[in-house]
Specification:
The complex is a heterodimer of chains A (207) and B (126).
Chain A (H helix, E strand, L loop, with lengths): L11 H4 L36 H14 L4 H21 L5 H22 L1 H10 L8 H20 L2 H11 L5 H8 L3 H18 L4
Helix pairs in contact in A: 2-3, 3-4, 4-5, 7-9, 8-9
Chain B lengths: L2 H4 L20 H12 L6 H13 L2 H64 L3
Helix pairs in contact in B: 2-4, 3-4
The chains are: A mainly alpha (207), B mainly alpha (126).
Chain lengths: 207, 126
């Protein structure tokens, strides 16, 4: 189903939280899902990966195997995630999993090549040239700005609310799983998420 | 408003009988409640139908929901960044604590060795 009947590109990760690990295959082909009753939880559109945290963990692993340091791998994956979010706003991404993976690897290769040639030129190029795919440097910069702001919002919200929010958003845990883990009712968990989202909207105002 | 909106089937009412999806709550507050409601594991077509009704009820609703959705999406990257940073902080703190502990142990051992040596020299004849 489409969570949002409005004209813009449907929110891929929000729309149908209950797909992703089922074999409904190209459910995210054009960003649409057909709702088919109860589905296992997970973030939609990430193909074989149930959750964002699993996808990024595997990517970091892959990058480390290619000789990247842990920190470098983390940064690359984060960059790729950000680019994916921006890119997706302009046009639907057919296979988010592949997009993120490819972007992370491209970033890794570009970075290595440039650093070998000239570290200073590399820094300038990194800044100016966001790769040949859509998001321009200004988009990236603006989004990195919002990303920092949003991260700061996470830092100031109550620990419990944040833990619940991220358990859902990143790990794809169901409300009942979170409820059990936190010793809360499902409705309390849902309220934490709603409250967190309200707070973040206020926090992100004018950003 | 439709009673189903307040308490959709398969799920207990998270808002204690108050309607989270209507005035006097702000459009933002309602949008947040919908984001949370749509993430339920047992979400069903009735909830989705209610959601669509809500979207058309007020012209500001689609816009607010859109803004909230964008935040939800960026939250993927932001949340991962938060976790990474948090982990690094913990690692750094652990490293500092560990090296401080090592230092203390070394100083203690060193002091012990020195005092033993001093004692032995005092005891030994000549």
């Amino acid at each position: 189903m489409r969570a949002s009947p409005i004209s813009h590109d449907p929110p891929l990760l929000l729309k149908s939280p209950h797909t992703g690990d089922d074999k409904s295959g190209p459910a995210n082909e054009d960003g649409r899902h057909t709702h088919s009753g109860k589905r296992p939880p997970g973030i939609s559109g990430l193909g074989a990966f149930k959750t964002l945290s699993e996808l990024t963990r595997r990517l970091r692993q892959a990058l480390r195997q290619k000789g990247r340091s842990t920190e470098e791998a983390e940064d690359l994956v984060q960059d790729a995630l950000l680019r994916y979010e921006i890119f997706r706003r302009a046009q639907p991404v057919r296979n988010p999993e592949a997009f993120i993976a490819r972007t992370a690897l491209n970033l890794a290769i570009d970075g290595a090549r440039r650093r070998r040639r000239s570290p200073i030129a590399a820094a300038v190029l990194d800044f100016c040239e966001a790769g040949d795919q859509a998001p321009g440097p200004y988009d990236i910069l603006a989004s990195r700005h919002s990303l920092e702001r949003l991260k700061a919002g996470l830092e100031v919200m109550p620990t419990k609310t944040r833990t619940i929010l991220l358990a859902q958003r990143l790990d794809g845990m169901t409300y009942s799983q979170i409820a059990e883990q936190q010793g809360l009712s499902q409705s309390a968990v849902e309220k934490h998420i709603a409250r967190a989202m309200l707070f973040l909207q206020q926090w992100m105002q004018d950003w | 408003m439709d009673a189903r909106l307040v308490s959709p089937p398969d799920f207990d009412d998270p808002y204690d009988g108050q309607d989270p999806f209507a005035a006097p709550r702000s459009s933002r507050s309602q949008a947040s409640a919908w984001i949370a409601a749509l993430r339920r594991h047992n979400r069903n077509p009735a909830v989705e139908a209610d959601f669509r009704t809500w979207l058309t009820r007020d012209p500001s609703n689609p816009r607010t929901f859109d803004a909230a959705t964008q935040i939800w999406e960026l939250l993927g990257a932001a949340g991962m960044a938060f976790r990474t940073e948090h982990r690094r902080k913990v690692l750094r703190r652990t490293a500092i604590t560990a090296s401080a502990a090592c230092f203390i142990v070394l100083v203690g051992v060193g002091a012990g060795v020195v005092s033993q040596a001093v004692k032995r020299r005092k005891l030994s004849p000549a």
